[in-house]
Amino acid sequence: MAAQEGILFLIHPMHQLYHSLEAARLTGTWLTIGVFDGVHRGHQEILRQLTAGAHAIGAPAVVLTFTPHPAIVLAGRDIKCLTTVDERAEIMFGLGIDAVISMQFTHELAEHSAENFMADLKRQLGLQKLLIGYDFALGKNRAGNFERLAQIGSELGYDVNAVAAIRSDNGVISSTSIRAAINEGAVALAAARLGRSYMLSGVIIPGDGRGRTIGIPTANVDVSPEKAIPANGVYACRAVVDGQKYQAVVNIGLRPTFTDGEANVRVEAHLLNYSNDLYGKTVRLEFIERLRGEQKFPGVDALVAQIHADIERAKQLL
């Protein structure tokens, strides 16, 4: 549906993504607050407890998230996201969340005191329960930690619960550790921490058509510049087009066998057993395993032979 009064889109009659706090007029909410980039297993435990408690008493389960990442605004860091706002909301709705509020994070917002911010939330959302992560803090100078938020809650009339961290074999699961895994091409490790495969989505745009000339047509995926892209290399993936899943081999990189000095990383997908025209369609790539790093081959024949070997290995993995 068209955007109205700040509602970006409506996925389900009970699932709303709001583009501002002012647009969300709710009552009796159970709320959690955070960036939640990736909606990883640690985030999912917070959302599980939130939805279970809220729905047991018929209350709406609501998430307040921020864009861009606060560290981009406050520290100037170059952070590529694991999920766009729309992707984040879609995952959360699938986990039972009723409404997602995406607030624009600014220097002005960062200057709000915890007291004033929580008063806004109480007034706008009818807040009655707040669930936060184990290390959460908000407001100017991060003064709104668990203890302070609980004090404010006793004054405003809401309760606060903290949710313990979820750990993996390598420590606490975090968005930062998952971004590091993606940056290294360790998509299987990222999936273990996310609780699902890492995904890239985009519209198929025209390329140079070179894959078709060697008998291995590829689709050039136009990925959002906001997204974290796995390290250059070749990956076994599942591709989703028009609701159907296909096995795929995906190359990420600069195509050194054909080009010299190309600056823009390309994401090119070869879908197995797919023969229709892909141009203009949206494809979602689910990364399963990295097959190898990017290589420069002595010629086209050597490249084609390696691609066929990649395809066979991908079929075994998938």
Main-sheet strand order equals 1-2-5-4-3-6-7
H-E order: EEEHEHHEHHEHEEEHHEHEEEEEH
| Tally of contiguous helical segments | 10
Shape: elongated
Low-pLDDT ranges: 1-13
CATH architecture of the largest domain: 3-Layer(aba) Sandwich
Reading off the top of the CATH hierarchy, the class of the largest domain is best stated as Alpha Beta
**Helix/strand/pairing class, anyone?**
alpha/beta
Average pLDDT, all residues:
89
Distance between the termini: 36 Å
The biggest sheet amounts to:
7 strands, mixed
Strand content: 25-35%
The CATH topology of the largest domain, please? Rossmann fold
Number of strands: 15
Number of separate domains: 2
Helicity range: 25-40%
Short description:
By secondary structure, the chain is of the alpha/beta class. It has ten helices and 15 strands.
Describe this structure in words.
The chain is α/β, with parallel strands linked by helices. The chain has 2 domains: 159 residues, 3-Layer(aba) Sandwich (Rossmann fold); 121 residues, Riboflavin kinase-like (Elongation Factor Tu (Ef-tu), domain 3, Beta Barrel), CATH 2.40.30. The strands form 3 sheets. Strands 1-2-5-4-3-6-7 form a 7-stranded mixed sheet, sandwiched between helices. Strand 1 and strand 2 form a beta hairpin. The protein is elongated. The two termini are 36 Å apart.
